[in-house]
Amino acid sequence: MGGLQKKKYESGSATNYITRNKARKKLSLSLADFRRLCILKGIYPHEPKHKKKVNKGSTAPRTFYLLKDIRFLLHEPIVGKFREYKIFVRKLRKAYGKAEWSGVQRLKENKPGYKLDHIIKERYPTFIDALRDVDDALSMCFLFSTFARTGKCHVQTIQLCRRLTVEWMNYIIYSRSLRKVFLSIKGIYYQAEVLGQTITWIAPYQFAHDHPTDVDYRVMATFTELYTTLFGFVNFRLYQTLNLVYPPKLDGQGEMNLKSESDEDYALDSESYTEKLSALSASLARMVPLVEEEETALDHFPAEGEDLEKMETREKAELELDNQKKLFEGLKFFLNREVPRESLAFLLRCFGGQVSWDKSLCIGSTYDVTDETITHHIVDRPNIDKQYINRYYIQPQWVYDSVNAKIVLPVEEYFLGVTLPPHLSPFVHETEGDYVPPEKLKLMALQRGEKPNTEEEEEEEEEEDDDDEDDDDEEAEEEEAEEEANLAKMEQKRSQGKSLPVKVTPGKVKSENRMRVAEEEKAEEKRLAIMMMKKKEKYLYDKIMFGKKRNIREANKLAAKRKAHDEASKVDKKKKKTKS
Amino acid sequence: MSKLKSKKRNIEENEDEKLPIFDKDSSKDAHLDDNDEDEADLSDSEESVFSGLEESGSDSDEDDEEDEEEEDGSEEENSDVENKKKFSGDVQLSDKDVSKPKADGQNSKGMKKKNTKSALQGGGKESVVSDRDSGLKIPLQVDEYEHDTSDEEDIRNTVGNIPMEWYKDYPHIGYDLDGKKIFKPIRNKDELDEFLDKMENPDYWRTVQDKTTGTDIRLSDEQVDLVHRLQEGKFGDVNFNEYEPAYDFFSNEVMIHPVTNRPQDKRSFIPSLIEKEKVGKLVHAIKMGWIKPRRPKETTPIYYDLWAKEDPNSILGRHKMHVPAPKMRLPGHEESYNPPPEYLLSEEERLAWEQQDPEDRKLSFLPQKFACLRAVPAYSRFIHERFERCLDLYLCPRQRKMRVNVSPEDLIPKLPKPKDLQPFPTTQSLVYRGHTSLVRSISVSPSGQWLVSGSDDCMVRFWEVNTARCLKTVEVGGAVKAVAWNPNPSVCLVAVSYDDTVLLMNPGLGDRLVFNATDQLISSFEDPEEVKDQHVQWTVSEGEGHEQGHRLTLKHPKTVRQVTWHVKGDYLACVMPDNSSNLQVVIHQVSKRRTQNPFRKSKGLVQCVSFHPVRPYFFVATQRYVRVYNLIKQELTKKLLANCKWISSMAIHPGGDNVICGSYDCRLAWFDLDLSTKPYKVLRHHKKALRGVAYHRHYPLFASGSDDGSVIVCHGMVYNDLLQNPLIVPVKVLKGHTITHDLGVLDVTFHPTQPWVFSSGADGTVRLFT
After folding, report:
1. What ipTM, to 2 d.p.?
2. Distance from B695 to chain A by nearest Cα, in Å?
3. DSSP B490-546
4. What pTM does this model have?
5. Is residue A529 a contact partner of residue A537, using CB atoms and an 8 Å limit?
6. Running DSSP on this structure, what letter comes out for residue B631?
7. Per the CB < 8 Å rule, is A125 touching B372?
8. Angle at B605 between CA B602 and CA B607, to 5 degrees
9. pLDDT tens across B632-679, in order?
10. Contact A121 B386 (CB under 8 A)
11. What is the tens place of the pLDDT at every residue in A234-250?
12. Nearest-Cα residue of chain B relative to residue A131
């Protein structure tokens, strides 16, 4: 044996990781600066595979960063900016302390700032990468844009967030890329498909926030700083792809329409312009004047077998998508003042509908209540005084449900004062064995173009299936028990036979269900095979089966609950009938 | 300010109307005076000193011009002008000021001139007043003009500015310039005189007393008028127009003349050193970057096409380790504002939800139903959730986890179908009832016709296998621990162990020739000449015992737990588990009635022993190991590690190369002696402790009985080819025994020829599965 003894923790994974405190010291940054740097650069802790090895034998809980990541941070120019800022704060404090007001002024004018452009470029080398990560940015900006202009963060940030979100919504409208919406109790979820990326974001309902005290707004502000930069560049690029002017401008016609109205209401021209943009009712100006819509039909390639099938499904999906995009085309909506204007206007415009609202509600309304061509009037109150005959008065959920169903739903269930059908989440994709609410089944039938009356049978069948699976094991056991009981009886008879005169009765032919027997055999085979599994595989198998069983249990529970509810409501109805 | 303006206005007026107000004999004096006055006035005004000086300068300029015109201007007028200025400036009317005009009338020439001018200008009032003044002041006229400084006003009395009461008791009231006393005027007026004077003198109201001289002065009309005007808060000068248009001195209009005539200073031509130093400092600071030029503030960020030249290949190496953050979970039906009714929590569920810790909750919110969209309130935890997401993004350690995506069916090993592995016992066909306590041990006769069972109720029962009939019952003196039928088909002998005794019985079943031959064999024994000292006493039973079948009784020093025969049927091994002694296993030779202790040393608590079916090997199972001894060479050949806590039972494959061990920790270990000393396979089929294991003599079957009341029959094929490992497939789980006192199956054994398995249980039954 030659050579020196190898020391522990000097190679391998122990050297690949670094604890947070060490990283901080290496970068000589305060914890707050380190945090900001990590947020901006997208550095996050890694969970090592062998924590004890990395932790040098200790099991104390620590967060580990990759050493490479930290080394990579060392050369970040923004670290220098942080230090500059620190010095600036120190100088400012000194100047205040000495009451050198001119000095304070001068320092404040030269306040060091930094740009995040290079970080965005580095974190997202391609545009698609950036789009993939834009979810959180969207949700954050939508939240910040609803903040009051006082207190928690800079007014500029809020205004910027508002501007960016408006630009985003305008883009979505223009590109008609919205796919799903969901009214949850938390806020409104939107899902859009932009350049092949599915992007989901949530916008809170329009209420004043009561700001919680246990939230660190500095962290949020740092994220927002990053997100607004990212979001701005993304918007720019998106507008460019559609040949739209950035920052967005209303196109000539739309501007003219709006200008005639309430220009004098707004003191600042710029302000009124952003308001008009956020009204979402006018189309945007293009870089290149609009040429006739060139329909990019799918190229047809000669294909065989599977490929052909794929092609067909793809074509079908394409067609469906096109139909969805033109969902509300030709319909004319009017929003009553109690409905969430922005959300609905966004939605309706996304799917080609025309929308307007009361002039006093918001800038940018295009026609009046009295317009005879209005087809749908969206109202969120039990009834309305003055009703026009030639339009539907419906509740806002109709719009959301129609978008999710990709068809214009029948309006009967959404009339004023009617109890609304449940609003289902469009994000749930039921796999086999999951519980499907009956409303969804009905909807699916509608989408297929069937008349809604077959769903109940389907449901029952499903339930039976579930039960069967559960029962299998028990049945086998039961049978055995039965057999034993039979044997015991026979034995008894036999023992009795000693004392009693022997009596032979003609035997009965035991009718055996062959299918059943075969099934049992299979089940037993399976059980025996399971016995022979390796420990590791057995563990995994048990886990999978446990999960499956739990899912089934939950589905059954939901189904049972629904059944009970339906029965209760039926009884109620009957009671009412008998009373009347 | 207004004062200055008014003054200026005054000047302008004067210029316009050519009023000889500024007629002074010595322009220098006037200049000086003016200066002084102005300065005094301006000190309390807000205007800068500089501008005031300028103005006065202009005054003097004009004066100079005027001086040339009017050479004969007198002193009095100068003072008069001063007086006027004073009045207009100082609101307070002091005695001094009042006394001033008295001196005015002194020079008649000058007076006249002025009078005529004023008469010309504004109606003869002034002239009258001046006339009167002159009349009044004549007697007091001393040489006051010797000292022509108008500042020293009251030079008639030199006492200065003191309270005049001090001179109350003196006849004089002060001293004149020559130092002579100034006597008080003779006035002996008392109150009455005063009153009379008041009543009679029409001018009483305009008479004032000069305190410094003690004389009464009757104010002229002009003076009275002045007093009135001042009392009313108006300007002293009647002609003064306070509403004249104002002209800015410094205006945007470029004047062609300089404001002052003063030549420029030298310092205005040479560069200032101090300034140079200051500028130098600033330049240095800028050079060093301490001071930065002011930049225009950029509030709105500038966006451009950041990805104009995107290069997907320029991805940093760091990105290879990048674990993208998982996206937020998408909401399900239960999050809807109007969910289907089954997703709403019932009362109990809601309570349970509330009592759970927030981390444990499956849903982070309570599903709620609202009748309409208008009723939906703001979500109070919205900001929290965003914040938590932020925290997750930068604080949560990420790890790439491989997710197993297999269907559970693929995990199940593919085994040959049990159907193809037949025959094996599948159903329970017979139950042998009769014992009242646990049946510890069973054994089948080599012919397969008889079954012997030993129970805790001190009974040994002999059964016919096919009919389950109990043919014979023998009571012994204790709970039977083990029974073993002699495997030699030519000998009909059963070993039964209870307490410390092993009984060799001849049940007298089966072929008469056989059991008679056995009897003969036993009775034909002759004691050897030399009697060895043995641990075990051999006694031949007689009498009643003989009737029952007892043939030989072997008294052991300790309790015997297990007995086992050699295949040939001559040797019998007994186990007396005792950790401390070396006498745990004894081997008896029945034909010679000899006993030997094979081991000199204890190697642990012996659980069970077994003979090798073909070779002279002896297997001893202690708690954790199985030792294989070569009986001829008298040495240890192998030590098998069972990988379990406590071996309970052991069986040897009829081929002799495979051993199975059952253990109390639910395991069954299959050893392949050719392969390794470690188990070839460990089966954990049973849920509870294993009590018995057995191999079939011909069929590739083995069975294990356990406390969970089940017997599991496995197909255990051993191939002649050494390269092929044994195939082990469980083929049947046999259930039948009921669990009593937490004990299920206690012993299992196979039928010697048929694929049948017998099991004895704690419920007092023996069962046959075929």
Report:
1. 0.84
2. 19
3. T---EEEEETTEEEEE----S-HHHHHHHHHHHHT----SSPP--SSEEEE--THHH
4. 0.63
5. no
6. T
7. no
8. 125
9. 888 888 888 888 888 889 988 888 888 889 999 888 888 888 888 888
10. no
11. 999 999 888 888 888 87
12. B307
